[in-house]
Backbone:
């Protein structure tokens, strides 16, 4: 019966080889088909990812340029505020003011002018005038209402001339003034949204800081920063052939670089900005901005639009340095991005072809190399949801190369005493299983497949059984092999049996007993000990 059952579950080597070849080829073809389908259906997503990556790269470049320009300005504004506090600077200390800020304006040309104002309504404004410097002083108490005193200074701060003019200018009406009054410790610098400077009539933003002097008067220090040069700097960014970067206000008003034909939109009081004239490239910017406005001004979300048969992608984002006071946008031509993909199509297809050839060659090589060793995998585990039927099926098969029965775990039924020889007998079976094809050891079953149970072993509880098993495994085989062994304690016909599932190990297992170190393999229903020379040959061929 044993021989018949073994033959019934073992296929010929040729059959295994044929099935393995078929299955490997089918697996390779299936994987390739899945990959091609995935590549085809995911191509649109790949395009989207590349678009997002290029836009994000351009965005990071814009932010870097912005930081390079504005970080020194912000740092200088904070330092200047500290200096002004220590100097108890006020708008009427023009000479002291000039000495401080002439070097600042010479060093940072992006700063168009410097303003110092107070909550009392007076103001000192200082800016370039060719090779000289121009200042305006507003002080209603000193000069009267609607009067401004102008002074022209040389490059080395010598007064050249001065005059007074009527003016309806009031610092309290300017965008930066109220912002400066709201300065607190949490936010030392605030930035206006883009607007048109009153004196120069050019677009820009103003960074403000403020403090309160010992007389409880609020003082505001402001740097006017022009945006046209910054816009020009952004327009030179080249990530792709046709990418465009631009500055804009949160309302969608665009700051274009110098040299564009433009008209003024709005009035100075409302903060006018430039809109394009006949420059075709600038219309792309406004197409993007209009599309963005129609989508309810969502930041950091890619959008697209078509113009003259070409598709463009864009993203609008905040330049966080200025706390959402100014936005920037990037636009890229889809054709440029698809070109990046097309450049890689040939490479990808060639790679797929090489993978197909290599996979088929490797599959054929593996079949030829290992076909003579292939056997059907023996049964080395029990289905827990059909435990009893699985046990009865094994009992009907009887002992084999992958199945062994033992009556007890430690009790010698003849002497009625615990015997080490009983433990060694089933332990060498485990070693033999691991060194061969794996298998199942049933303890509590006699040689005739009768269910005896292990009650004769007189264990107090299952924990004692587990502990004893673990100690024997550690002592005679080694705990490093515990990953290959699984102990199940269960009842069948009201009797406790042990099911020890044993997998084939990927390294040699030895049985350590007293001073010996023995190597066992399975041969039919028996565990056979090999001599040293046979062990070396067996290990060399197997591992």
Residues:
């Amino acid at each position: 019966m044993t021989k018949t059952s073994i033959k019934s579950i073992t296929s010929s080597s040729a059959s295994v080889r044929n099935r393995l070849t078929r299955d490997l080829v089918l697996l390779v073809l299936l994987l390739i088909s899945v990959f091609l389908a995935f590549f085809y259906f995911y191509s649109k997503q790949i395009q989207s990812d590349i678009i997002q990556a290029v836009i994000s790269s351009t965005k990071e470049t814009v932010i870097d340029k912005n930081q390079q320009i504005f970080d020194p300005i912000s740092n200088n504004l904070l330092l200047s505020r500290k200096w002004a506090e220590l100097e108890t600077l006020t708008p009427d200390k023009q000479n002291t003011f000039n000495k401080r800020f002439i070097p600042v304006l010479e060093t940072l040309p992006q700063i168009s002018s410097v303003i110092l104002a107070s909550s009392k309504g007076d103001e000192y404004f200082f800016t370039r005038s060719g090779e000289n410097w121009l200042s305006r002083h507003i002080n209603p108490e000193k000069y009267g209402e609607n009067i401004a005193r102008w002074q022209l200074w040389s490059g080395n701060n010598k007064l050249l001339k001065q005059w007074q003019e009527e003016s309806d200018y009031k610092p309290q009406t300017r965008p930066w003034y109220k912002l400066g009054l709201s300065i607190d410790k949490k936010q030392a610098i605030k930035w206006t949204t883009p607007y048109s400077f009153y004196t120069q009539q050019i677009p820009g933003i103003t960074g403000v800081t403020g403090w309160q002097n010992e007389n409880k008067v609020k003082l505001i220090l402001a740097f006017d920063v022009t945006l046209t040069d910054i816009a020009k700097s952004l327009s030179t960014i080249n990530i792709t052939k046709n990418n465009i970067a631009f500055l804009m206000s949160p309302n969608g008003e665009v700051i274009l670089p110098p040299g564009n034909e433009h008209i003024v939109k709005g009035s100075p009081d409302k903060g006018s900005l430039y809109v394009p004239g006949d420059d075709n490239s600038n219309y792309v910017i406004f197409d993007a901005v209009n599309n963005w406005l129609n989508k309810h001004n969502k930041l950091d979300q890619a959008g697209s639009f078509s113009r003259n048969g070409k598709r463009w992608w864009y993203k609008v984002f905040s330049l966080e340095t200025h706390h959402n006071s100014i936005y920037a946008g990037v636009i890229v031509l889809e054709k440029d991005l698809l070109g990046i993909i097309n450049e890689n199509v040939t490479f990808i297809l060639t790679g797929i072809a090489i993978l197909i050839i290599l996979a088929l060659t490797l599959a054929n090589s593996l079949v030829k190399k290992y076909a003579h060793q292939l056997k059907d995998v023996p049964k080395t585990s029990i289905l827990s949801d059909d435990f009893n039927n699985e046990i009865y099926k094994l009992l009907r098969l009887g002992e084999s190369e992958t199945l062994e029965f033992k009556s007890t775990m430690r009790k010698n039924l003849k002497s009625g005493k615990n015997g080490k020889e009983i433990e060694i007998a089933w332990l060498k079976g485990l070693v033999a299983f691991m060194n061969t094809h794996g298998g199942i050891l049933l303890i509590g079953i006699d040689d005739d497949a009768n269910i005896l149970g292990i009650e004769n072993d007189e264990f107090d509880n299952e924990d004692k059984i587990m502990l004893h098993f673990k100690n024997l495994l550690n002592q005679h085989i080694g705990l490093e092999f515990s990953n290959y062994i699984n102990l199940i304690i269960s009842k069948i016909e009201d009797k406790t049996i042990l099911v020890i599932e044993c997998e084939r190990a990927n390294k040699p297992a030895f049985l350590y007993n007293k001073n010996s170190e023995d190597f066992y393999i399975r041969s039919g229903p028996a565990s056979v000990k090999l001599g040293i020379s046979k062990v070396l040959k067996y290990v060399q061929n197997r591992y």
